[in-house]
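Section 5.1 Outputs to date
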Amino acid sequence: MTESLSPIPPDSYETALKELEGQLQRLETGQLTLEEALATYQRGAILLGYCQTRLTDAEQRIRVLEGESLQPYSPT
């Protein structure tokens, strides 16, 4: 089984993001066969969904910690 078809979920958001970046680089080379490109795209979509879910979960946890009132970010 190729890496792009791996059904194994990532260990963390950071791992998923790193793998997603690698999948994007593979697609951008233009050197993949059609089947490889489709499999790479499919794995990328899975990783993107995982990352979006993790970010939504983190936002919900922050909302709980902040009493449901998220404040605008302002770097200091």
